[in-house]
Amino acid sequence: MLKWISIMKTKTGAFIDMNVLTKSIIGLLCATTFAGAYFSYTEHQTNRQWEQQQQRNKQYWSHIQSIHLRNFDYALAESLAAASFSDRQAALQSAIENVNLIVQFVSSASATTNSQSWPVYESFITNGSRYLAYPASEKEISLNPNQLEQIQRLRKFARTALPYFDLMREKGDRTTLSDIERISAEMEEALSQLDSVYTYGNKAFNEFLYNQNPYIPPKPGTVFAGETTYNATELAAKAKIFMGEAWNTGAGKQIVNMVSGGSSPQLGEFMDFKLSDTTGKPTSSYIATLSKSGHVLQVTRDGSISEEGVVEQSMDLKQAIAAADTWMARWSDERLAIVAKEIKDTSIYLTYIPVRKQVSIPQMQVVWQFNRRTGALKSFDAYSYFYNYNKTFPLHPKLTAEQASEKLSSKVTVSGKPKLEIHNSKLVYAFSVTGIEGVSRVYVNALTGADEGIDYNL
Length: 458
Hints:
Number of helices: 11
Order of helices and strands: HHHHHHHHEEEEHEEEEEEHHEEEEE
Radius of gyration: 34 Å
Strand content: 15-25%
Distance between the termini: 93 Å
Shape: globular
Structural class: alpha+beta
Mean pLDDT: 82
Helix content: 40-55%
Low-confidence stretches: 1-12, 110-115
Number of strands: 15
């Protein structure tokens, strides 16, 4: 009897252990199932939130397009109905401003909406932006038949596209991404059936374009053609003078060596120089690049050379400007003005440009980068300056600032004093403005009064 009881106890214990194990396995499976379900749910929620954000972005984009496209069509209608030359000009200028905003918004919005391209829509808009300056320049009391036809084509384009933009946003949050993509495809198909702006063989239009951007043949040879050239030894001496204290470091004799060279169609031959000791071992990470005529084109640093011995010496903006001014005095006889100062991460960036006869020339910029932690120069870049080195820029305006301001749209308000500068190789008055969201500056040709575009930001 006692033996039977003992056996029963053993079996019961085993049965209890198996029961606990089974429950543990079931619990683990439940936990795993729950975790998988939770992960699937959160992933679904993330995807849903992304889709909702994309849907909102595209609806906002279509709303902005609709506003400017409606204003564009309205302005074109005004130009056709205008009773006077001045009214027509004002209406066409408004159409130009709206179509330029559409062009810029189309190109910048693709990144935020992740939408497919609309080649037909973009083609109409681009051609319209390119064409409208032509009828806007018309001096006759009435537009000619071809100009009227092209404006009517642009109006038909706008009035065909507008209902599709309205469809994209009419159901609000109930509009899905697939709805927007379907409507977009339908709009592209409808627009593809229309006649686009046609200028092929239009002699008057082509002459107008040429007069706006006449061909100026480049001077023969490189930008330094005709200047005195130097051999490697002479250029090494010039590099050492320019580098100054940056190369006057290290024990023992320091030698400037040419390490490489090359040539380009614009700049001709150039050579790279580094500092080394008498054994040829580099003693500085700086590489100075000079043209054969002795101009310092750039300074970079060789990342393969350790900077372990660099002394920590923090630099603020004022100190960076003082250092750059010292280098600039050795770099060129032309005194450049600082136009931009930026502190980013561990670097300070300074941008200089020429100002000639009170005209700013932003194309000819020189950029310095300093290390905020050590105060050392990180890079110097004067390529933009020298690519435009022998260009002749117009510096004498025919219009006063007041006369140029009369060419501005009534929709903008000038804030601050206008500046004369070179914009796309043309002499313009740059007006800082308010009144149109995203438009910070408007450019007016200082010779002709023509519209030369805007600065636009989303």
